[in-house]
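Title: Prediction job returns without error message
Component: structure pipeline
Severity: low
Priority: P3
Assignee: unassigned

Description:
Job completed but the reporter wants confirmation the result is attached to the right record. Sequence as submitted:
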Amino acid sequence: MKVIILAAGYATRLYPLTLDTPKPLLNVAGKRIVEHILDKVTSVKDVSQIFIVTNDKFYDEFKKWQYNYNSKSNYVVPISILNDGTKKNEDRLGAVGDIDFVLQKEQIDSDTLVIAGDNLFGFSLARFVEDFKCGGEKSIVALHDLEDVEKVRGKFGVAMVEGSKIVDFEEKPENPKSSLASTACYLFSKDDLHMIPMLRKEGKVDNSGDLVKWLVEHSEVHGFVFTEHWFDVGTLELLKEAEEVYSHEAAVTKVLR
């Protein structure tokens, strides 16, 4: 199993913090956001390679981080930093574009975890992968139950689930049918991954919501519903909130030890 961490955005909403620092390398409770994600990935025993895809502007910053991370971490799964070649926000490839870039460059032919480099979440990735296996190794999406349709209205992709199967998916609907928000954490089967280059070429998918919607309609996609914390760190307010939650968790863990 491979892992792709999407880290090629420019995070303009977090300026000036992200003028010279990529969002996944911002600190939350004394640790880089991407390191919190990697801590989750360590629980997945099947992972053989991790690819962090960034842009030309921040490529050197990620290489410096990688050198320091490798020197202090005991994590043995190899990490590759890939440069998608974009230089500014207007030229970015987008989530699906960067997934396709990695697939083509690395000739990936395996089930692949795809995680946005600005997502902080409380659920276990090992449990997520186990659900994927129990569901017949069909693509699976992590869904955060916000328990109120007003909290998802016009903001997130929204899924309707029967059993574990996603039967309907809408991108940022004004009249959501559920409170299950799609998060940027996916485990795509290799069969579904093979469709991405074709779908992009034909103009059928542009962002990750488009991809999930297409797969729901033409393949089989399952939902992994969780209620633990989730932060899509896109604003200063959410960054501050994540800092408070993770600092509290770190303090509790220290006391328990």
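Comment from assignee: result matches the submitted record. The mean pLDDT is 93.
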